[in-house]
């Protein structure tokens, strides 16, 4: 059984990320499987920050298919270039959307989501094979710190993606 994630009692995101990194690294080091690593990372991020939705979509053919997540039920399939997730996949870059209502073609899986960040994950050949999607009920809840830190936290998962 894994030890629970322990975090400082602060709202300072940089401090929370600093505490989270070594724990996530240790947690994911015991996982030989990308799906289980995605599940544990989703749970750790959801517990640490209390975001509305945290999860992964995997590239299957020409769609993103829902993978492990924490939060309310979600869209199960997203097309290439559709919504924030599909756009991040298409553009092969992290996307920070301060207000999803202003994003053309936003896919509203939940009317409570107000801002979003999507981080592409690549396999060993550099091809995007999944995305981390995080939704917040707060407008402008994500910034470059989140983009950098979430990408770093996804690195152990990327290592399992082939």
Keywords:
single chain, 162 residues, alpha+beta, Beta-Lactamase, 6-stranded antiparallel sheet, 4 helices, 6 strands, globular
Rg, Å, rounded: 15 Å
Domain count, please report it. Answer: 1
Fraction of helical residues: 25-40%
Overall mean pLDDT stands at 93
- Oligomeric state of the chains? single chain
Question: What is the straight-line distance between the termini?
Answer: 26 Å
The biggest sheet, with number of strands, parallel, antiparallel or mixed sense and barrel status, is:
6 strands, antiparallel
User: Helix tally?
Assistant: 4
Could you tell me the CATH topology label.
Answer: Beta-Lactamase
User: How much of the residues is beta strand, in percent?
Assistant: 15-25%
Spans where pLDDT lies below 50 across 5 or more residues: none
CATH superfamily: GAF domain
**Structural class label:** alpha+beta
Level-1 CATH class name: Alpha Beta
Strand order of the largest sheet: 3-2-1-6-5-4
Shape: globular
Note down, in words, how this protein is organized.
- The chain has 4 helices and 6 strands.
- By secondary structure, it is an alpha+beta fold.
- The protein has a single domain, classed as Beta-Lactamase (2-Layer Sandwich), CATH 3.30.450.
- The protein has a 6-stranded antiparallel sheet, sandwiched between helices.
- Helix 1 runs antiparallel to helix 2.
- The two termini are 26 Å apart.
- The model has no long low-confidence stretch (mean pLDDT 93).
């Amino acid at each position: 059984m894994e030890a629970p994630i322990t975090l400082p009692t602060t709202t300072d995101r940089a401090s929370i990320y600093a505490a989270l990194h070594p724990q996530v690294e240790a947690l994911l080091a015991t996982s030989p499987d990308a799906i289980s690593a995605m599940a544990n990372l989703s749970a750790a991020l959801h517990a640490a920050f209390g975001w509305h939705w945290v999860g992964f979509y995997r590239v299957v053919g020409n769609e993103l298919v829902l993978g492990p997540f924490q939060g309310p039920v979600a869209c199960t399939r997203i097309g290439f270039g559709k919504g924030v997730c599909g756009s991040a996949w298409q553009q092969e870059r992290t996307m920070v959307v301060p207000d999803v209502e202003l994003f053309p073609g936003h896919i509203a899986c939940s009317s409570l989501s107000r801002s979003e960040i999507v981080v592409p994950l690549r396999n060993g050949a550099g091809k995007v094979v999944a995305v981390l999607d995080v939704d917040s009920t707060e407008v402008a809840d994500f910034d470059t710190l989140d983009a950098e830190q979430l990408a770093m936290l996804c690195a152990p998962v990327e290592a399992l993606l082939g």
